[in-house]
Please model this.
Amino acid sequence: MIKSRWRTESSTFTLTDDINGETGSRNSNGLNQFFLSIQDQENLSLLDFGGASQANVTFITNLGHRIYTEDVLRSIDDVFGSDPDMQSNPVSVEMFLDQVLDFPDEHFDGVLVWDVLQFLSPAAAQATVDRLRRILRPHAYLLAFFNANEKAPAVPEYHYRISDSKTLVLTQRGIRPPVQFFNNRNIERLFQKYHSIKFFLTRNSLREVIVRR
Model:
């Protein structure tokens, strides 16, 4: 079962060396940990922040689960526009949450957040994480990525396609300045209401985080 508010066109992937951040495939310990957490379970409800992807839909439904998709980066642009100050407006933040996370309490068994949180203001990111905690079931897992290069004026934003439980194919969808950078302490503070958090630091300064509700 697939629930989607926006569908993106399927992409053609060219697998290249991703050492310079180009399109390519990469191993993901965080992704592997996420799927290990739900192995031997069926009929779960998972949320994908990257928009509809045929690769992700096929992989997750073949595991016997339902997938809901939201293109959250597109919603950030739609609701807040290009003015970062809009993300500090409580009315705009609530509008954003109602657009992307209007689900019942304890509705999901896991969520693939990808790199979205680094493009939200502190207030909007915290509100998003708090709403996610509300719509996740107890002991559910969340996977998020953060760029660890604090000096970069802009960072790539990607489509994340699941090749297998340990491998992602990344296709760059653009470049944008992060609204904030996250070090380990900031990430721990962001998820302080959750049960546990585990970090994986990969090449290209990509920090992967697996969080347990």
Confidence is low (pLDDT under 50) at residues 1-21. The longest strand covers residues 136-147. The chain is about 25% helix and 30% strand.
